[in-house]
Structures are given as C-alpha cells and as structure tokens.
Amino acid sequence: MGINSDIELSSWVMKHQSYVSVSTESSPSKFSETSVKIMTKKVRKWQVFPGKNRFCCNGRIMMARQTGIFYFTCTLIVVTSGLFFAFDCPYLALNVTPAIPAVGGALFIFVMSTLFRTSFSDPGVIPRATLDEANDIERQIEMPNNSPGTYRPPPRTKEVVIKGQVIKLKYCFTCKIFRPPRASHCSLCDNCVDRFDHHCPWVGNCVGRRNYRYFYLFILSLSVLCIYIFACVLTHLILRSQKDNFLHALRDSPASVIEAIVCFFSVWSIVGLAGFHSYLVASEQTTNEDIKGTFSAKRGQENFNPFSQGSILKNCLVVLCGPTPPSLIDRRGLVIPDTSQIHPGVEASTGKESNSVNVKHEYYGSTNVTKQTNNIGTDTVKDQSLLSGSNGTGPITKHDMISYQTPDGIITNRLPPINGKNPMWNVTLTQLSYHAGTNPSTNPN
After folding, report:
1. Looking at the domain assignment, is residue 327 inside a domain?
2. Does 263 participate in catalysis according to the annotation?
3. Are residues 117 and 244 in the same domain?
4. H/E element holding 36?
5. 302 and 369 in one domain?
6. What is the pTM of this model?
7. What is the pLDDT of residue 155?
8. String of b and e for 331-341 (b: at least 16 CB within 10 Å)?
9. Domain enclosing residue 56, as ranges
10. 294 and 224 in one domain?
C-alpha cells in the first residue's frame, strides 16, 4: 500500500478507535500499462549528456553551444566563393582557361567538407566517471593519507613514465577522473578532451585527437583557396584594365573588389595559422603543450617530447594518416532506465504496486504493514480477545500490528524514537500516528 492509503487507515482508526487487519495480497494495481510504457520510454544518451554541447540529427552531429562565429565562418567562405564563381570565373574561363572554375570548385568542396567534419564530430571527449568509479578514486586518494595525528590535503596528481619522461596526470574535479596524458578540460564545452589542442570558435567545436587532422587540412586548404581567389581576382582586374584603365575595370566588376579586400585581410592570419600548425604537426605537439612549454627545457633539466616519432616525416604520417580512434561516448546509445527510481511504488518486473512505503532503505529505513491471516476487519469493542497484546499483559496498540525495518535492515515492532536523530522517522510517525493515544482529538469513548 502507498502512503495515502496508510494515512486514510490512520484517520479511520483514530476516529472509530478500532483496528483492522489489512490484506496486502489482493490490492489491485493502481498503475495502468500506459504508466509502465512511460517509464520504459527510450532515451538516448545525447539527451542526458552532461557537457555543454549541442546535438543535432538524433545525436549524429555534436558541436559546442556557442556556434555564432561558426555560422559567420561559413557565411564568409560561401559568399566570397559565390561572388568568385558568379563574376570572375566566367570571364577567366573564356579568356584564360576553363580549368580555373574547376580547380576553384574542387578547393571549395574540400574546404567545406573538412570544416563540417571538424565541426560536427566528437573531438575526443573522455566520459565522466560514474558514481562508483568516482567513489573508488576518492578512496584511493584518501587511503595513503590516513596517518594519525596529521592531516594533509590528498594529492590530486599521479605520475607515469613514458619513454623515460615523467608525465603528471592531473585530477579533474568536474569529470572525477585522472586525465590521461595530453588531455585537458575545456571550460567552454565542460568536457575533458583527449589530446586537447584548443577550443576553436571559428569551427564551433573543440579540436582534439579525433578531429585535429581535419582541422589542419581545413586551415591548409582554406589558405590555398584564399590565395587562389586573390590571385584570380587580380588576374581578372589586370586583364580588364588592359582594354581600359584600371578604374573602369573596378567599376565594371565591383564584386572583384569585395573579394580582393576579404582575401587580402584574411590571408595573413589564415596562412600564419596554417604555418604554426604545420610546425606543431612536424614536432608532434599540440597548441596547449606549446603555449605552456610542456616539453621545453626547465632549469637546466633535459626535457623532451616522448610522443614524438623521431622524425618530421613520421610525425606527419602519424597525425595525418594514422587511424582515427573510436568515440568513447556512445551518443546514440540508449539510456537504461532504473524503474525502481522512476516510481518506487511500482515493481520494475511486474508493474504491480509494491507494499512498502516509498522511502529509501539505505537512508531512512522503511515501514511495512504486517500481513494478517484474517482479512476481515475486527472491531476492538466486540472482540475482547484483541484488547490484550501478544503477551496478554496489556491493551493492544497500533504499533503492535506494524513491523518496522530499521536503516540497518532489522525487522522489529518496537516503536522508533519520536525525537530521534533521523527526521524521516518523525515525518513517518506523524503521518501514520502509530500510537492511538498521541492524538489529543481522539475520543476514548
């Protein structure tokens, strides 16, 4: 029976000063099949993902929440390329070669494909620890710190040796894990990312182990496309100026002026970024490691990069041609519901209403009405045999008919202390009014 039925029973008892035996076997279920279906509704893991990410297409697309600059990037590339194909390519195809629009189209498709691959993929998010895993890690951290008499804050780092180089593993207080080497926590996405390079707002995502190669190919191809469009626009304007002066050429093709300005101010930063990441690829480093100076010499101590393959060619092959590791987060997987937590009054297997009060045993204990052999209500005035307790020494009270399960799991009919330390006992006693004499409004007659 639920709490509401117990309260109604208590109210009737206090009014009539009679005690009834309650059958717990034949009570019909109060929950329809629709309620059971709601509890077993399919929920994907991306719908309950704890990080600050945005998912589309049923979890197939994963991005950061701040996507405004990403849309600006797409608009800038598409508009500039569109002006180039609409106003410059027809003239150049007729007067120079038809290969110009073909090469430009191939570059545009490659740039957009690598951009979307970088932006829409999992960068290498490391799953957060479960509750049991987090508790186990906390026990491991606290265990060496149990020396009596002194207390020191537990260490939050571990050390591993890779190719003779000591690497520190830092503890993430958000994900409750010791981050693997080269991983870092992104404050914008609120995730630990494996081989974290940086968070790039221009692509709307973090850049990590699983999408770094596509990011590098994107900025490299974008640099080539920017230089290509700028060179073709200048060629177009020079050819037009040969037939007339340069100012008339600018007046006849205003779109070429816009393209030239956009490419001129963009090419410096894009080419510079591509050159910087080419250096990182050749030395097998990340932006995060290079800025922090992780593998630079410190105070005369020899320090080297243990992740380097020993040569520029091998480092480039590892980054650009190595296998892409699988995603560690099953975004489209199903969340297994805990039906006992969805509604504690319904059994998960049968969908029937359970007899226990909806209170967690591990925290508050539970209260169960004892099963009686006689299902017929008994009036205490007419049946004098019920006026004495089980030992025949005194009048029966309501708590003689109720058994209690203590937080330790012990079944007893001893009344819990009214002013005990556990506030949940007091709430339960107030609702059920275990002793008939505790209600001042009770009429003994």
Report:
1. no
2. no
3. yes
4. helix 33-39
5. no
6. 0.66
7. 64
8. beeeeeeebee
9. 46-127+190-321
10. yes
| 285 found inside a domain | yes
Residue with tokens 């593998």: 295
pLDDT tens track for 136-155: 888 877 765 555 545 555 56
CA-based max dimension of the chain:
123
Compute the distance between CA of residue 305 and CA of residue 309 in angstroms, rounded to an integer. Answer: 9
- Provide mean pLDDT across the span 282-295: 91
pLDDT tens digits, one per residue of 152-210? 555 688 888 988 888 889 999 999 999 999 999 999 999 999 999 999 999 999 999 99
User: Would you say 315 and 309 are in contact if contact means Cβ atoms under 8 Å apart?
Assistant: yes
97 and 234 in a single domain? The answer is: yes
Give the total number of structural domains in the chain: 2
Q: Are residues 381 and 300 in the same domain?
A: no
Round to whole Å and give the CA distance between 184 and 352.
48
d(CA 434, CA 398): 6
What CA–CA distances, in Å, run from 279 to 205, 211, 272, 282, 312? 22, 18, 11, 5, 9
Which residue, among 172, 79, 76, has the nearest Cα to 133 in the 3D structure? 172
110 and 209 housed in the same domain: yes
302 plus 365 within the same structural domain: no
Helices (H), 244-376: 246-252, 254-283, 287-292, 312-321, 339-342, 361-364
Residues in a beta bridge with 366: 405
Residue 222 is assigned to a structural domain of this protein: yes
Which two tokens mark 346?
Answer: 């319904």
- Dihedrals φ, ψ of 62, to 5°? -130, 125
Q: Residue 346: inside a domain, yes or no?
A: no
Instruction: Pull the structure tokens for residue 256.
Output: 């070429």
Q: DSSP strand E in 323-397: where? A: 366-369
To 5 degrees, how large is the angle CA 88–CA 91–CA 95? Answer: 135
Of 266, 261, 281, the residue nearest 223 (C-alpha):
266
| C-beta of residue 54 within 8 angstroms of C-beta of residue 64 | yes
pLDDT number for residue 315:
94
DSSP state for residue 86 in the 8-state scheme: I
Do residues 213 and 117 both lie within one domain? yes
Strand partners, 198: 207
- Report the C-alpha dihedral over residues 160, 166, 170, 171, rounded to 10 degrees: 30
Of the residues 172, 192, 200, 263, only one is catalytic, namely 200
Contact criterion met (CB below 8 Å) for 372 and 22 = yes
Let me know: does 365 contact 405? Beta carbons within 8 Å: yes
Give the whole-angstrom CA distance, residue 153 versus residue 316: 43
